[in-house]
Amino acid sequence: MMRHYKAYCFDLDGTMYRGSEPIQEAVDFVAACQAEGKGTYFITNNAALTRTAQQKKLANFGVNTEVDFIMNSATTLARYCKQHFEGAHVMMIGEEGLREALELENIHITTTNPDVVLMGLDRQVTYNKLADACLAIRNGAHFLGTNSDIKFPTEKGLVPANGSFLKLMEVATDTKPLIVGKPEPHMLEFIRQQGMYEKEDMILIGDNYDTDIMAGIRYGIDTAYVATGVTPMEEVLKKAQQPTYLLNSLADWLK
């Protein structure tokens, strides 16, 4: 029997859509939750898009939400940086989503002599950018990353994500980055505080066992795995820690 919750936290890539293609069962499920007045939050390790751009992408698929109900790893990283490195000069590798999140927190962005290096997915990354960041970290700059996803699903298939580049940098710098995105629980804690929920009122819904499901398990909330993205069902069934629910798609919940 599927429980009812006050806050439904949906992953995006592989759960709500694959690249430019919506996953209709998920779109329908969100609409049903919203019709019942449930809190619907969208949490993503994607730090490339701004929250406004993610809002527009969802709207194109028929999913309506306020920007405040979108929690991405760029926003999470900027808030973490503000809390722990107040006044720091920051070098970033990333796209508009990370830049906007840092600017909203009034964090000083620099290309030389940083105190902190922040790394999110940058699809225009160059060797020189990576080399400059590598040298800064070797000179003592703190090293933080938005998320450790190795790959993410597109309409063409799985492609490299930020975690692949973080692995490269980790090897090059002999330094392990601090990660704020899933499976770390920072996003879920921000959502809990925002909505003043109890943990038993929250559920995380996602396709990636290692990031989505593990984030929920680590945080201590219920989880629903959907077989529409990264992790195949047969792999999930072998895991020592099982999700609360196993679904082929969110259509199974509505039955």
Automatic annotation (TrEMBL):
UniProt-listed InterPro entries: HAD-like_sf, HAD-SF_hydro_IIA, HAD-SF_hydro_IIA_hyp1, HAD_sf
Keywords for the protein's UniProt record, in alphabetical order: Hydrolase, Magnesium, Metal-binding
The keyword Transport belongs to this UniProt entry's keyword annotation: no
GO molecular function terms noted in the UniProt entry: hydrolase activity
Pfam families: Hydrolase_6, Hydrolase_like
Cofactor needs: Mg(2+)
Name under which the protein is recorded: HAD family hydrolase
Organism listed in the record: Sporosarcina ureae
